[in-house]
Amino acid sequence: MSRAVCPGSFDPVTHGHLDIVRRASRLFDEVVVAIGVNKSKSRLFDPDERIAMLERACAPFDNVRVDGFTGLLTTYCAEHDVQAIVKGLRAVSDFDYELQMAQMNDSLTGVDTVFLPTSPEFSFVSSSLVKEVATFGGDVSAFVPDFVHTALLERLAARREAGEA
User: Per-residue confidence of the chain (165 residues) as pLDDT tens digits?
Assistant: First the structure.
């Protein structure tokens, strides 16, 4: 069985993420969407919320499951018999960074990295940009699933009320 992992923070999950997951699900028998949990980083949504959102967003894909991990991705791959890491590339600048990561990951465990170019309609979409635009009242509904958009607006409103934003 061929198994791949699509890693990320997914804070929040975007249509661009889901496009890569969908395409990876056609290439591999099983795809694990692996949410990195880094306690030192501040996220808008906690790990359980991100996992729940991704489980809902990935429900249409029969061979996709969602999991969280801490530590090195290569350790996760070795522990879960993952043969490939799938990364989406939006621009040449992504490639420069991701190539170094792919080479490091290969040297650590021999896991291969598969690069998928993002679909053109998502080439400018990132979680960080979605959060920033939404924070300032911009309409990001075209870039995230409806239920994620609702959760995003609710979380930002709660932060404003608490004086955090």
Answer: 899 999 999 999 999 999 999 999 999 999 999 998 876 667 999 999 999 999 999 999 999 999 999 999 999 999 999 999 999 999 888 899 999 999 999 999 999 999 999 999 999 999 999 999 999 999 999 999 999 999 999 999 998 888 876
CA distance 57 to 75: 26
The reply to whether 149 belongs to the active site is no
9 among known catalytic residues: no
Please say whether the beta carbons of 144 and 14 come within 8 A: yes
Q: For the chain, state the CA radius of gyration.
A: 16
Order of all β-strands in the sheet with 64-69: 64-69, 30-36, 3-8, 84-89, 112-117
In the residue annotation, 17 being an active-site residue is answered as: yes
